[in-house]
């Protein structure tokens, strides 16, 4: 419990009045007198404001509850959101304490007694946690000596003011409060500027957003009506507006988030909304509107890390992605960037060797404009490719309108956008050689030709002996190994972990917990016997016919060569005797089927939209960004899984058809699931990626409407088939019917219309009318306009 003082002297009453001169409204408060202290564990861990809205004290880190921040946070909401912290770079353990000493110092000490942080003042007599969220240290005369509003971390609260020279600093990640990569600064020249910085040194790169104002008396002010930059000449720049939401009805905060965006958030005070700031709490405004497009420093990595590119996604947050054949250095810390999954090109190789080893993967609507080091004009695309291929420094080339730009690693300030006819050529190894080092040619030393003949003889003899030994070992090994195990070794070379059947039986507790089943397989939940007890999904093929074996090999070969955030990742396999099993990462939120149609009611609109976009991006990768084009052939909600963050992950490549790069059409048996099958399956026509586009269109309608594709119990055929019904609603101008009862969607009808139009394009009967998945992605994220789709002439063949 905090110490309380009984105020009986008139001077003390005067001190009370002076304490609240800086607040917008008079309020009750509690004093913590000199000698008061807090510890991370025990009775005194925090001090509350009078109303209990805010707390000051020790807050356990989200990722490690045994270490603590000295912080201020919201108390009466489930997320307990932090609004100020002191020791983000140096969290403390149990045994630490913060104390207001008898000589008026306020400091944080760790468990060894060493000082971690102090307020930089003396002669403080009291501390007070106010209902505004401001924590104050006050002297005996009632004058504030220090206050958190004047020494902010990453957040502003209503009534708070940032004067000249003040700044907000983002922390590194949502769950990591160490120094981040962005600052918002009120400069002494009167300009309000957002900078990227180099963590942890805080070296400042170029600005990526500014008000471009000048004035010695400028201030950033958080008023009830919003956040404004007031200048000395009485002019005001509106940074954000909360509209009609008042501080009496809504909690508010403005935070420089870890992704470099300054956002203004609100939340109802009645507590009816449960969630976190980015979920139950609503962002009402932010600056800049798209950080991916405005970061353009001459140095640094930009919004994302080196060799990655930035996309501002549907939920208004930065999404960092890697180019093909690159992967994140740390998938949990994407800001660190991406690395090539192959050895760098040797500068000693000649042109013929380079052409044999490397080729280009083509991307569009992505660029790294600050990584150019050489430019050519008036050349064709083939010449551009040759120039980059012959240059060992060239990792990427862009070509458009006769201009060729070469880029070297590390690529920086990557972003997506509309770049017209510009192609991005990513240099990658041929034939999936990413795991082998390109050979360096041996150069003869002309000054030592006399050694060539005897050296060659010795080398030949050594090679002969070595080959003989290899043949003997190989014969002995192969004679003892069943022939059916040979394919497993080739799969191991793809980086997959081979499991024995007994290992997987033990991991799944005798295959006891079933997650789902298909026509020839059952999926079980399991836990690997590693240090982390990794949870996995084990797919066990229960009928080992020749067709199933072929399907097994096809699935393994396909998935092992793919990696994307919207695909389920294959971790390993078992190929033992008659047993064929696949081990996948476990998706904790289940399938899109269960998410959309569970008994708990319709999922939130703002959560459904990123799922649709994630599916589209995953299919775009399979169709256009893989070494070999992949057609899934069975896109449906059951084959879309959701991870911990509700990110869509496409699963089950068992029905996929792997094509060679020069192949665009194939004929195969009818596959897929009723209601999602494209009409061309029934016409003995060539099957292309457009069958996946059709399936995606049907799934997109289900996501928008939260209604199953086929509902046999409906009274009419038009009502029983979702595509019929949505198309009729769209043509009749009654689109609000498809989201009836969904208040969030009804308030976002412009996006509803865009998604419905995209879906109707995808389910056109003529495959040539359907867009590519790249075009679908662009229409979904709003970077490309969506024209009115033709009225589909027939859906009936796809559901019979």
UniProtKB/TrEMBL annotation:
This is Receptor-like serine/threonine-protein kinase. Residues 347-424 form the Apple domain. ATP binds at residue 540. Residues 509-786 form the Protein kinase domain. Residues 1-26 form the signal peptide. Pfam families: B_lectin (PF01453), Pkinase (PF00069). It comes from Musa troglodytarum. It is found in: Membrane. The keyword Transmembrane helix applies. Belongs to the protein kinase superfamily. Ser/Thr protein kinase family. GO terms for biological process: response to other organism. The chain crosses the membrane at residues 54-75, 451-475. It is a single-pass type I membrane protein.
């Amino acid at each position: 419990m905090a110490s309380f003082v009984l105020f009986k002297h008139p001077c003390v009453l005067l001190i009370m009045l002076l304490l609240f001169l800086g607040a917008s409204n008079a309020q009750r408060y509690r004093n913590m007198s000199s000698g008061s202290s807090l510890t991370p564990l025990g009775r005194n861990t925090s001090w509350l404001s009078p109303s209990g809205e805010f707390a000051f004290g020790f807050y356990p880190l989200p990722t490690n509850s045994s270490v603590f921040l000295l912080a201020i946070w919201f108390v009466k909401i489930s997320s307990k959101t932090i609004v100020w912290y002191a020791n983000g770079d140096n969290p403390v353990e149990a045994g630490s304490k913060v104390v207001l000493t008898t000589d008026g110092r306020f400091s944080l000490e760790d468990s060894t007694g060493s000082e971690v942080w102090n307020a930089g003042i003396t002669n403080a007599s009291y501390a007070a946690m106010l209902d505004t969220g401001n924590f104050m240290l006050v002297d005996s005369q009632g004058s504030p000596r220090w206050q958190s509003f004047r020494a902010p971390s990453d957040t502003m609260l209503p009534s708070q003011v940032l004067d000249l020279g003040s700044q907000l600093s983002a922390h590194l990640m949502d769950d990591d409060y160490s120094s981040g990569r962005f600052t918002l600064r009120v400069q002494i020249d009167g300009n309000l500027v957002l900078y990227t910085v180099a963590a942890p040194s805080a070296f400042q790169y170029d600005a990526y957003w500014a008000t471009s104002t000048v004035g010695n008396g400028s201030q950033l002010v958080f008023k009830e009506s919003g956040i404004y930059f007031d200048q000395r000449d009485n002019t005001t720049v509106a940074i954000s507006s909360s509209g009609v939401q008042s501080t009496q009805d809504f909690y508010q905060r403005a935070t420089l988030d870890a992704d470099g965006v300054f956002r203004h958030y609100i939340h109802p005070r009645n507590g009816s909304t449960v969630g976190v700031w980015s979920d139950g709490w609503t962002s009402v405004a932010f600056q800049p509107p798209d950080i991916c497009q405005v970061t353009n420093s001459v140095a640094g990595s930009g919004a994302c890390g080196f060799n990655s590119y930035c996309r501002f996604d549907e939920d208004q947050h930065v999404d960092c992605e890697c180019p093909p054949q690159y992967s994140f250095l740390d998938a949990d810390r994407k800001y660190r960037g991406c690395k090539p999954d192959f050895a760098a090109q040797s500068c000693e190789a000649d042109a013929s060797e380079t052409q044999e080893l490397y080729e280009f993967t083509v991307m569009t609507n992505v660029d790294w404009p600050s990584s150019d080091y050489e430019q050519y004009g008036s050349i064709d695309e083939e010449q551009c490719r040759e120039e980059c291929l012959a240059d060992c420094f060239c990792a990427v080339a862009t070509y458009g309108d006769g201009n060729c730009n070469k880029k070297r690693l590390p690529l920086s300030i990557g972003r997506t956008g509309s770049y017209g006819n510009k192609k991005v050529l990513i240099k990658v190894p041929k034939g999936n050689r990413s795991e082998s080092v390109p050979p360096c040619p041996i150069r003869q030393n002309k000054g030592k030709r006399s050694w060539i003949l005897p050296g060659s003889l010795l080398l030949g003899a050594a090679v002969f002996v070595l080959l003989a030994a290899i043949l003997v070992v190989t014969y002995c090994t192969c004679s003892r190994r069943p022939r059916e195990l040979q394919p497993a070794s080739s799969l191991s070379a793809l980086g997959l972990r081979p499991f024995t059947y007994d290992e997987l039986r033990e991991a799944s507790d005798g295959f006891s917990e079933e997650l789902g089943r298909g026509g020839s397989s059952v999926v079980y939940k399991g836990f690997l016997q590693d240090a982390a007890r990794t949870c996995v999904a084990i797919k066990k093929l229960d009928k080992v016919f020749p067709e199933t074996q072929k399907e097994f090999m096809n699935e393994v070969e396909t998935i092992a060569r793919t990696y994307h955030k919207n695909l389920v990742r294959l971790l390993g396999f078992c190929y033992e005797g008659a047993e064929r099993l696949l081990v996948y990462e476990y998706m904790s939120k289940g399938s899109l089927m269960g998410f959309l149609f569970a008994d708990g009611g319709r999922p939130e609109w703002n959560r459904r939209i990123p799922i649709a976009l994630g599916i589209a991006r995953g299919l775009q990768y399979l169709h256009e960004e893989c070494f070999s084009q992949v057609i899934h052939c069975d896109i449906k909600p059951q084959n879309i899984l959701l991870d911990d963050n509700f990110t869509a992950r496409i699963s089950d490549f068992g029905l996929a058809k792997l094509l060679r790069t020069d192949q665009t059409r194939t004929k195969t048996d009818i596959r897929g699931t009723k209601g999602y099958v494209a009409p061309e399956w029934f016409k003995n026509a060539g099957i292309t990626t457009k069958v996946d586009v059709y399936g995606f269109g049907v799934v997109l309608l289900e996501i928008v409407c939260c209604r199953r594709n086929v509902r046999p119990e409906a009274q009419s055929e038009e009502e029983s088939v979702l595509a019929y019904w949505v198309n009729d609603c769209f043509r009749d101008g009654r689109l609000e019917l498809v989201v009836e009862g969904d208040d969030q969607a009804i308030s976002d009808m412009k996006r509803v219309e865009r998604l419905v139009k995209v879906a109707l394009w995808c389910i056109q009967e003529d495959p040539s009318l359907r867009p590519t998945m790249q075009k679908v992605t662009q229409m979904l994220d709003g970077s490309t306009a969506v024209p009115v789709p033709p009225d589909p002439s027939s859906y009936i063949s796809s559901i019979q």
